[in-house]
Amino acid sequence: MFAATALSGAVGQAQAGQLQIMPTRLGLTTAMPSTVLYATNPDASDTTYQLSVFRWSQNPDGTDRLDPTRDVLANPAIFTVKHADQQIIRFGLRTASLPIEGSYRVILQELPRSAPEVNGIKTLLRISIPLFVPAAQPTTTMRWALRPTAAGATLIARNGGSVHVQITAVQIAADSMSKPPIATAKGNFYALPGITREIDVHAASPFVAGTTYHVRIDTDQGPMTADLRADPGAAPPAS
Question: Do 114 and 146 sit in the same domain of this protein?
């Protein structure tokens, strides 16, 4: 996996380090409280990173919130990966399973080199990796609603279960037999337990209020479907 975040908005030739991460999602359990992450540097130069683990939650509007935590220990905290070399990062769980899944983010932040850039602006790599601790009794309960908009529709997803749901694709059709769909969306949308997320789905023509549409949602918990009435005041039921 490659990811980069530019930390400077200056105009110029931007360069960023590279890092290959495996796996791209981590999990810890009370039965298996340790795991490892492999970080390989294909870049031509040595690169130093700072490693942090945060408790991951979401605000009522679905935006992410990261808070410091000691639930998960990570080692080493700072490391340098030489060209074509690999760093093993170790994680250990320090908390028991809870009624609701534990959600965390592992952040790998590239640190600036001491030597200044000569021909451009150096951007710094920042990688965010999800880490989950399963709920004692995992349940998946999703509620959906569809709100028409000027550009198509907004799919409203409410997670009433005890585990996360990662939404990767949305397809909306006039009915369950219609092909192709009239609107689609792809992405990487997480709905953590107890959170409502909104996903904009663009369409060539407006959705008709009061009309029922067939919606297919691809998730990491498996495909889900729902027949939803397009309602300008739509909101999924609380339970």
Answer: no
